[in-house]
Write a structure and sequence with these properties.
The complex is a heterodimer of chains A (445) and B (253). Chain A folds into two domains: 184 residues, no CATH class; 212 residues, no CATH class. Chain A contains 16 helices and twelve strands. Chain A is elongated, with a radius of gyration of 36 Å. Chain B has 253 residues and is α/β, with parallel strands linked by helices. Chain B has a single domain, classed as Rossmann fold. Chain B has a six-stranded mixed β-sheet with strand order 6-7-8-3-9-10, with helices on both faces. In chain B, strand 7, helix 7 and strand 8 form a beta-alpha-beta unit. The radius of gyration of chain B is 18 Å and the shape is globular. Classes of the chains: A alpha+beta (445), B alpha/beta (253). At the A-B interface, helix 1, helix 2, helix 13, helix 14 and helix 16 of A face helix 1, helix 3, helix 4, helix 5 and helix 7 of B.
Chain lengths: 445, 253
């Protein structure tokens, strides 16, 4: 009774009898790579078949990714410029001053004002006692008017330094002429080394060697130009070359000894920075300890160049966020385009979905198929967008004069984020396709 | 075809045994017990099937015939596991299909049912070979084995020369043969054909029906749903449906 037809008949050639079936087909594997590969194949075939639709979808994503990549790349270039500029003094330099460069509140301002001035003696004590320190120097700045003949420049930074190694600490080099000698410096001679902006503003861009030997008037007093510095360039639109270096003893004569100084300390290697900071902190605490009004205040500020970078970071982080956000909106628009196109695609292919379901595609298979289709198109769009984004950033960088920073991370991120956009915007259309009723889907068209 | 005579005798015995009304017959390939299908049309309930029961043993060639609106299509959808009954039990190859969810039904359709449609329902952009491979893809068969099986299936329906053609490069009869190869490539329990000759001329129709006869002689269980009496007459047993009920269930060969 149990004997059934397929056992009865001797097949004359290949037949569809169940007995011919390899055993492993009866088991239904959970991981079905073949189905995923099929989904990918179908996806690419469908993208090829609907070229105009694919192109429109691509444009949507490409524009979004281009905007984001360009903005991010330019921001990175800007950051790099700023970091390079501030670290021209190097991460091996720190300073001791009366008050920090950035004062956050009025109370702090009052507190810092009550501190004792940082003096030449403090610098000497550090030079004598700090074994980890390499170069110790002092510098003081004033803004003043500088004149040559009938030419005049206001708000020029007059920087008094001692000793000569402060030129190295500041990271400036001589382009023409010379720096002063130790003896000249100690004698408080009226000699100066000028930044390139002085040539531009007062000497109608004469070549540096023509300026050597000319007489400059600072605050009405004549100074002999003995050297010209190499340009440092601008940072965020501010020139760093609008400066006149004079010996510190000369500076004291002109601007008085009672102003607070900044002590610059340089270590040979960045690794020694912490040890030197600790030593200097101890030295300064000892020197300030007895004379403090407020026992909770150290009485001095120890700062590395990081403060500038931190300030820059704090000042620009919101701007960056908003810019990237605005660029991101176009990516969201791209995502909506993809969703739209995918919905059209699902509607157009209802019949196909019905056929696939009838012959055994599960919800998961259909879902995967459409998700892969949308991810494929957005990933390709992302890759193109990364290329055009870098291209756009290159153009803009070339115009502004930034270094172009092509980061692999942002390339990977660009493709990754657009793929995520593909998943998100493909999810709903794919789910609609997956839960189609096979009977109704087969009736379509 | 002349070779059929040997098959009929054992199945006849099975039919005589399927008189249990309660519970399914474990020997039957298909066992339908008191199947109801009710559709909600607004506030009204429409009964497409009013308690249908029958058994189909393995290896049978059966036609289900009825005019449009008789519940014939509903019955076909239920047999093909595209839908589940509102009430009643459907056992297919010893599995209770009536309580399965979407994905379980998809698995049953993949493993147990081979569909042949009136309008072929091939994927237009895919080659004949790929169309035939499709059930194997969803069945998780590896590429080389899949190719092999699909080629054999196409050869068995005499389409070995047309494997790389797309459906629009094939005649109606050839397309239907691709569909038959696709239906049978996974070695299902049943071949379920819905008006398989409805879109074909009479000569091609005869060819397809001859092919069905051959497949039956090779041991396949074939169910043809049709409204044409001469197509139904090729089967060995005919179930007539009218108004959601079995009107007649007769053995004709």
């Amino acid at each position: 009774m149990e004997r059934s037809g397929d056992q009865e008949v001797k097949p004359r050639r290949y037949t569809f009898a169940r007995a011919d079936l390899p055993a492993r087909i009866r088991s239904f594997p959970f991981v079905r790579l073949t189905a995923i590969w099929e989904a990918f194949r179908v996806a690419t075939a469908s993208l090829r078949a609907n070229k105009l639709r694919t192109l429109l979808t691509l444009i949507g994503i490409v524009v979004g990714v281009t905007a984001v990549i360009a903005v991010v790349t330019i921001i990175q270039g800007l950051d790099k410029t700023v970091a390079q500029t501030f670290s021209s003094q190097g991460s091996t330099v720190f300073t001791i001053s009366k008050s920090p460069q950035i004062i956050k509140s009025r109370e702090d301002f009052v507190k810092f004002n009550h501190r004792k001035d940082v003096t030449h003696e403090d610098a000497q004590a550090i030079r004598r006692l700090c074994t980890s320190c390499w170069r110790v120097g002092v510098a003081a700045n004033a803004l003043d008017t500088v004149k040559y003949a009938d030419q005049k420049a206001e708000n020029v930074r007059i920087r008094g330094i001692d000793p000569l190694s402060m030129f190295d600490v500041d990271g400036v080099t001589i382009d023409a002429g010379r720096i002063w000698s130790e003896a000249e410096g100690a004698a408080g001679r009226e000699i100066c080394v000028v930044g390139p902006d002085i040539l531009k503003n007062l000497f109608s861009d004469s070549p540096p060697d023509r300026v050597i030997g000319q007489e400059l008037r600072i605050a009405g007093r004549p100074y002999l130009i003995i050297g010209v510095l190499e340009p440092l360039g601008t940072i965020l639109g501010f020139s760093r070359d609008n400066v006149v270096y004079i010996p510190y003893s000369t500076y004291q004569k002109e601007y008085g000894a009672r102003r607070s100084l900044v002590v610059f300390i340089q270590v040979p290697e960045a690794e020694q920075l912490e040890a030197a900071e600790d030593q200097v902190r101890t030295i300064m605490r000892n020197r300030r300890g007895h004379t403090q009004d407020d026992p909770n205040d150290e009485g001095f500020a120890l700062e590395t160049q990081d403060v500038f970078l931190n300030l820059y970071g704090a000042a620009t982080s919101n701007i960056k966020l908003v810019t990237v956000g605005v660029a991101g909106v176009s990516l969201i628009v791209g995502g909506i385009v993809v969703m739209n196109i995918m919905l059209v695609s699902v509607t157009e292919r209802t019949k196909e979905i019905g056929i696939r379901k009838a012959i055994g595609a599960r919800r998961k298979d259909i879902l995967t198929q459409f998700l892969i289709e949308s991810v494929t198109v957005t990933a390709i769009g992302g890759a193109i967008g990364v290329g055009t984004g870098f291209g756009l950033a290159y153009l803009i960088s070339a115009l502004i004069g930034f270094p172009l920073l092509i980061s692999i991370l942002s390339a990977v991120l660009g493709v990754g984020v657009s793929s995520v956009v593909g998943i998100i915007s493909g999810l709903w259309p794919a789910w609609r396709a997956a839960k189609l009723d096979p009977i109704e889907a087969l009736r379509a068209e | 075809m002349s070779s059929n005579a040997t098959i009929v005798s054992p199945t006849e015995n099975v039919i005589q045994a399927t008189t249990h009304v309660n519970g399914h017959d474990p020997r039957a390939l298909i066992s339908m017990r008191n199947i109801w299908k009710t559709y909600q049309m607004g506030t009204e309930s429409v009964h497409a099937l009013h308690g249908v029961s029958f058994d189909i043993p393995r290896g049978e060639y059966i036609a289900i015939i009825g005019p449009s609106g008789s519940g014939k299509s509903t019955l076909m959808n239920l047999i093909g596991c595209l839908d589940t009954p509102s009430q009643g039990e459907y056992w297919l190859n010893a599995k209770n299909v009536s309580e399965m969810d979407d994905d379980e039904l998809a698995r049953i359709r993949n493993q147990e049912v081979g569909f042949v449609f009136q309008t072929f329902n091939l994927l237009a952009r895919a080659t004949a070979l790929h169309n035939v491979e499709l059930p194997l893809i969803y069945g998780g068969v590896g590429a080389s084995q899949r190719h092999d099986m699909a080629k054999k299936a196409l050869t068995a329906v005499d389409l070995s020369e047309r494997m790389m053609h797309k459906p629009n490069e094939l005649s109606g009869g050839q397309r239907q043969r691709v569909a038959i190869a696709r239906a049978l490539v996974n070695h299902p329990s049943i071949l379920l054909a819905d008006e398989p000759t409805g879109a074909l001329d009479s000569h091609t129709s005869m060819e397809i029906m001859d092919l069905f006869e051959r497949l039956h002689s090779e041991g396949n269980t074939i169910i043809v749903v049709t409204h044409e009496h001469d197509i139904a007459a090729r089967a060995h047993r005919v179930i007539s449906i009218r108004d959601g009920l079995i009107e007649k269930d007769e053995r004709i060969k």
